[in-house]
């Protein structure tokens, strides 16, 4: 018997000894009695033999053999269908690249570039062949066990089944033991007629973040249902120094209550900056991006979960507790972008590890009695690459661990190849609608801005101020007042709100519509 299924089969046999294994139907994410003619989001599992059952996912149009003894999770059905227990996890994705620049060939190459990191990944098999009408790319690899990852599934198989140049199904298997049956699962995969539509079926829970009285007051002030929209800013030297910000605020006749401060593992908690902000009556959106500046951080998630940064995180938590005042804590933002070294693009296409990292750091905070942190989870509005395994919901650590959902979408302009001018109305209504369907938590725009290359920036600002007030769940909007430069150091994305007299006046006029407290 293949090693993958030895323990799984033992569990399945134990269940069968108690009662016969029967077919199961999952309708809109819930196990239910089969109803003939019901085709919303329907998935059915039927026992095949001692080891397998056949999953048929009508909404996503496929059928495949899966091990007995796995629980099916269809809560993110438009993104992924998951089957899991303590020993194994299967994730099944469908991607369609029609009317995009990507193809299934691109997908098969780009999805697996993490294997170039031979320090952390050991390739066990790499086969490409045609079978049952599919071009199949079958990979096996492994990595070291991670100390802070319970039931760590460190053996992987990836089955990519290309239907044509635009459509591809992917089955990612993760196991506590070597996987030897990936080929058999690939051979069993067939298409079925699509019936119904995949739906999000998430059941929300409440945050369990402990708040001090002061932190609760700040949360209620900024993020209650009745809170008005307030503005924040990233100004490169604030809150360490306020000279530039003081001058800008005087020109705008507005005091920004929220400031952004970035940091990496290169420094410890910027306690002086936090104190300076507190003394000025400001709240800091403290953005910790785990890794070191100007170095290769492609192992960072593995290293965090393997205990390399335990001492750093313990000291970091103690310093936050010592500071004692409320902080908006944004951990590893834009994780669904491949420009971030904590994206699953770098570590086995396994976003579960990002979620485990988040929960582990939260556990360190909880163990130190921290009650002055408001946790902000913040993907980018567009996933790069735009593959389902990199979808933003794959990175969501759970309602218990998140207090505020962050939105980020920029008008990057046209300076860099492949980028385009995007109006505020082409970014935020779409992401706001999508996030509102997924979350009941309050939102904040954690950073955004408009370039001046490619269009009329003052007009962009005017339209943004006219439109932003209609999104009542957005309680804070933070303008990123900086510049992204090209490889030669030339300005490429100029997000400065005070770039010209016209942009400064447009922003000043826009702010007059919003609260100043």
The average pLDDT score comes to 94
Number of strands: 23
Question: How many H/I helices?
Answer: 12
| CATH topology term of the largest domain | TIM Barrel
Question: Which regions contain 5 or more consecutive residues with pLDDT less than 50?
Answer: 1-20
- Described by the principal axes of the CA atoms, the overall outline is globular
CATH architectural label of the largest domain: Alpha-Beta Barrel
In this structure, how is the largest beta sheet organized?
A: 8 strands, parallel, barrel
Alpha carbon gap, first and last residue: 67 Å
Strand content: 25-35%
Question: Could you explain how this protein is built, in words?
Answer:
The structure is a single chain. With 517 residues, the protein is of the alpha/beta class. It has two domains: 3-191, Protein Transport Mog1p, Chain A (3-Layer(aba) Sandwich), CATH 3.40.1000.10; 216-511, TIM Barrel, CATH 3.20.20. It is 25% helix and 25% strand. The chain has helices at 3-18, 104-110, 182-188, 213-223, 243-252, 271-279, 300-305, 310-323, 352-367, 428-438, 457-468, 501-511, and strands spanning 24-27, 30-32, 42-47, 52-57, 62-67, 71-73, 81-84, 88-96, 122-131, 134-142, 155-162, 167-175, 190-191, 230-234, 258-263, 283-288, 327-331, 373-377, 404-407, 443-448, 474-480, 483-485, 491-494. Strand 15 (258-263), helix 6 and strand 16 (283-288) form a beta-alpha-beta unit. The radius of gyration is 24 Å and the shape is globular.
């Amino acid at each position: 018997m293949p090693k993958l299924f030895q323990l799984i089969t033992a569990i399945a046999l134990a269940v069968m000894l108690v009662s016969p294994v029967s077919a199961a139907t999952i309708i809109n994410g819930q196990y239910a009695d089969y109803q003939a003619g019901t085709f919303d989001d329907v998935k059915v599992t039927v026992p095949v033999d001692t080891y397998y059952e056949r999953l048929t996912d009508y909404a996503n149009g496929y059928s495949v053999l899966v091990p007995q003894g796995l629980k099916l999770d269809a809560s993110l059905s438009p993104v992924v269908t998951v089957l899991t227990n303590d020993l194994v996890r299967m994730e099944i994705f469908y991607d369609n690249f029609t009317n995009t620049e990507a193809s299934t060939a691109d997908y098969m190459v780009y999805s697996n570039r993490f294997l170039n990191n031979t320090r952390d990944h050991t390739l066990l098999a790499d086969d490409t062949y045609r079978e049952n009408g599919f071009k199949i790319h079958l990979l096996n690899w492994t990595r070291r066990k991670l100390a802070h990852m319970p039931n760590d599934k460190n053996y992987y198989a990836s089955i990519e089944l290309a239907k044509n140049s635009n459509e591809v199904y992917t089955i990612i298997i993760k196991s506590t033991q070597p996987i030897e049956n990936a080929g058999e699962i690939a051979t069993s995969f067939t298409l079925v007629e699509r019936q119904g539509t995949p739906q999000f079926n998430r059941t929300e829970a409440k945050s369990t973040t402990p708040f001090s009285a002061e932190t609760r007051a700040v949360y209620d002030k900024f993020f209650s249902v009745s809170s008005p929209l307030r503005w924040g800013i990233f100004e490169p030297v604030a809150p360490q120094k306020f000279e530039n910000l003081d001058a800008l605020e005087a020109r705008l006749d507005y005091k920004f209550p929220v400031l952004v401060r970035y940091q990496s593992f290169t420094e410890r908690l910027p306690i002086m900056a936090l104190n300076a902000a507190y003394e000025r009556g400001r709240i800091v959106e403290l953005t910790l991006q785990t890794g070191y500046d100007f170095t290769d951080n492609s192992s960072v998630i593995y290293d965090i979960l393997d205990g390399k940064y335990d001492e750093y995180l313990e000291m970091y938590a103690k310093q936050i507790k010592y500071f004692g005042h409320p902080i908006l804590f944004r951990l590893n933002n834009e994780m669904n972008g491949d420009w971030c070294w904590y994206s699953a693009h770098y570590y086995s296409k396994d976003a579960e590890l990002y979620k485990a990292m988040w929960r582990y750091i939260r556990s360190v905070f909880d163990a130190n009695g921290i009650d002055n942190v408001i946790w902000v989870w913040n993907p980018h509005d567009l996933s790069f690459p735009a593959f389902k395994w990199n979808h933003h919901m794959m990175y969501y650590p759970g309602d218990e661990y998140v207090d505020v959902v962050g939105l980020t979408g920029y008008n990057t302009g046209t300076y860099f190849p492949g980028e385009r001018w995007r109006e505020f109305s082409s970014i935020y209504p779409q992401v706001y609608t999508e996030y509102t369907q997924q979350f009941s938590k309050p939102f904040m725009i954690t950073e955004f801005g408009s370039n001046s290359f490619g269009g009329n920036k003052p007009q962009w600002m005017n339209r943004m101020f006219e439109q932003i007030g209609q999104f009542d769940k957005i309680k804070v909007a933070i303008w990123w007042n900086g510049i992204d430069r090209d490889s030669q150091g030339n300005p490429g994305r100029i997000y400065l709100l005070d770039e010209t007299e016209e942009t400064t006046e447009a922003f000043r006029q826009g702010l007059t519509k919003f609260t100043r407290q």
